[in-house]
Amino acid sequence: MQKWLEELLDVLPEKQIMTEAADRFSYSFDASFGEHLPEAVVQVKTTEETVHVMKTANAYGVPVTPRGQSTSLSGGPLPVKGGIVLDMVQWPEKIEVTPDDLIAVVSPSVLTADINKTVEPYGLMYPPDPSSAHVCTIGGNLAENSGGPRGLKYGVTKDYVIGLEVVTPEGEVMKTGGRTIKNVTGFDLTKLIIGSEGTLGVITEAVVKLVPKPPAVQTLMAVFDDVETAGQAISQTLTSGILPSKMEFVDQACLQAVEQYKPIGLPVEAAAVLIIELDGHPEAISIETKEVERIMQELGATDSQIPDTPEEAAEIWQARKLVSPAIATIKPTKVAEDATVPRSQIGPMMGRLRTIKEKYDVDLVVFGHAGDGNLHPDVMCDTRDQEEMERVERAVAEIFEAAIDLGGTLSGEHGIGTMKSAFMEQELGATGVDMMKRIKEAWDPNNILNPGKIFPEQGQTRLVLRDE
Amino acid sequence: MSNETSLKDALAYDKTFDCVQCGYCLPACPTYETMEKETHSPRGRINLIKMAAEGKASLDDLKEPIEKCLGCMACTTVCPTDVQYGDLLEAAKETLEKHETKTKTQQKTEGFLFGSFFPSSSWMNALGQATWLYQASGMQKAARALRLTSMAPLHLGEFEQVVPAQPSPKERKARSRRVKPDGTPAAKVAFFTGCVMDSVFFETNQNTVELLRLSGAEVILPENQTCCGALHAHAGKTDMAKEQAAANIQVFEEEDVDYIVNNAGGCGAKLIEYDRMFEEGTDWQERALAFTEKVKDISEVLVELDGLAFSKDVPKTITYQPSCHMTNVQRVTRPPRELMESIPGLTLKDMDNPGFCCGSAGIYNIVNYNDAMDILDVKMADVKKTSPEAIVTTNPGCLLQMKLGVQREGQGESVEAVHLVDLLMEAGPRSRN
Ligand SMILES: Cc1cc2nc3c(=O)[nH]c(=O)nc-3n(C[C@H](O)[C@H](O)[C@H](O)COP(=O)(O)OP(=O)(O)OC[C@H]3O[C@@H](n4cnc5c(N)ncnc54)[C@H](O)[C@@H]3O)c2cc1C
Ligand code: SF4
Ligand code: SF4
Which positions fall inside the FAD-binding PCMH-type domain (chain A) (predicted)? Predict the structure, then answer.
């Protein structure tokens, strides 16, 4: 047995260290591409165990890759350099709510949706709502700085974290921030850790901020016969003094796929629909609903629907939810992108996407959180078709370019991981990437924690989705 | 090369590509919860099948994760991309079964269990009668005379303790195979009796026939029906399962009925998939399709006939443990609830996570006893929170398991486990017309 494994066994129960092939295979993938076998899977359940793993790994130079539920769409939890996969999921779940402070203290393994379930009885809400919330861990959300439809009004994960407990790459325990909303003592290390994709520290506890749960919500769906008008309608609404909690965009290809997957009477002739949710006091949203409807009509929406009951509203949101599974029936492999542009550029971005789709002859569909400029251009393909995958690689590269050209970013919420690292310099410039690298080197001198992520490897200049 | 292709075919490799590894099935999987690793999750198992088909992992790596899968299919109900996990699981089991080297005793035991025991109604009756003899006369050795406990080192003793009171052989013999309602029949149905149901829960089967009769149906019990084949298929014995399917199709074709009714969620799930066992476009597949179109759970038929009225209050608080195969394969969820709601005086308190398997899973609780008990413990914790007087279920395996659960919790006196059909009988059912 390897020396470092023996040393791990000094502190960790045997059951939490796995080296059998079946187990290693089971921790070799995420929801994106590629598979990489770790040498061992180690499950930690306490801060002390985590410290011991990091210290041992540093002593023996063994890479450690933290892993939540591995729903990452960018390769974050893949052990690309082998070593240890650090499974955080078996950590006992803890959600301690302090209603008077509007905060909750949570353990890293908590499923995101469970936070909301726990705080709801107190009349509170934890706003970040990635669509994977019922599956993914808060630890993964913190590491990826995940967001969801509510990002438009409420912001994303980083806007709700005020304190962390972190085990550093060298195995020291550090607390950042605290339990207060305001805190300017020193550098904001909390924000540095959030979105660091498991490369700067292992998050072992977080203090999250809560908001009062809005007393009422109202859904509205507007139908458009061209995509640019839908784009205008978004900007127009947001400059009219109204801030919806969600504004989701679904294009024709998606509408048709959903309708075929599960017929629910969607307007399949439409070029696009916007699904909007308003939240707040019932009287306020009744006025705002009328106002939004008027804006949609003035701009030339061909139809708008305002559901009367929560059940009808749920049906409309069901349509949005079904997009993901429905488009999977077009082709089995999904390259899920999340290029994001300034809101005024949604129309032009839609135009660029259409050109890319035709140029590379790929099955490109678009939906997403258009209210905050976060589109999901997904390319549907089949990994078994090498020729197609090559076209997809080029199409995706051009999607990134288009987003950056229009003043946007490579990734709104899925993270860089292995998938987008080749494009970092295009967006950040050489100095930007260099400053980030220096931070990484200072924090993790032995390059132990999640190596091979975010920064491009030598010679890695483009996206590769095939086995080469 | 051809070896590789045939392994890929055998493991239904192409179907693994439907899995996008989103992880949505993780929170639904009981074994991921109790065994605490991805290796025992749906996503992990599918990935291992893929790796084995590609020759990266060995069949040996696949063995334990596949054996420890309950086959509860909770993963398929939540899967957004409709992965055919059932097909993948069966393909994996069949492949493993073919590559397996078994000890002589294992072969003999299995040969007996699957070849003679489950399919044979006389053996099953014998089991029922032996249990009766055992209970009625206190003749301790009756079960052992059948050498049930020595056939396999299984915890059958524990299961025996929770088997219900048995009718006498005379009662069994006296059962009529054709029952007519009082007025003109509203429907003609054939009853699939099931092997475990008909031996261990004979009374429940009689009640099923009675409820159908009261609902206005003419009921036929075809004599030469055999085991549904589910247990064989779960054990990777696909060819045997296919033989049983063919035999049943043939037997039930002889009667011109509106429905083929069963009261065992697990059997129903197999019966309803008979068409998938035969090759597309063949004559057999067509016959299977005609068969499956008629297959219904008893609850569906009772709701559809809508012929019952209840004369007695059942002032009990119950909780409902739906059969996984009924929920996730047959996708029957409303009818049992509608029936319970129609019972006067009854209070139904739902437990958390009713969709979490109880751990019975065919003969899983017999072959993987300890794992099944871990799962049962999780289930019983949720059951207890509702403080029920009875746990209602719709499948013999679940019923036995729940009885065992109650016993293990030391609540054998205060909590009973009952089949939905028996609960309906308690409410004094009458013909509405
Ligand atoms: C169907 C589907 C829908 C999705 N929808 C959304 C969406 O709407 N919005 C969105 O933002 N994302 C979405 N995602 C992406 C994904 O769910 C998120 O990135 C999520 O935060 C990952 O959480 P996880 O627990 O699965 O973490 P993992 O995927 O296991 O890990 C993600 C990263 O976090 C690191 N990490 C995990 N735990 C820790 C820890 N305790 N300390 C330090 N580092 C850690 C890992 O090293 C890795 O780099 C979706 C994914 C899928 C499959
Ligand atoms: S839910 Fe379906 S697609 Fe997602 S990981 Fe599970 S089996 Fe695969
Ligand atoms: S069938 Fe049940 S036990 Fe098996 S993988 Fe699916 S959910 Fe888990």
Answer: 34-213
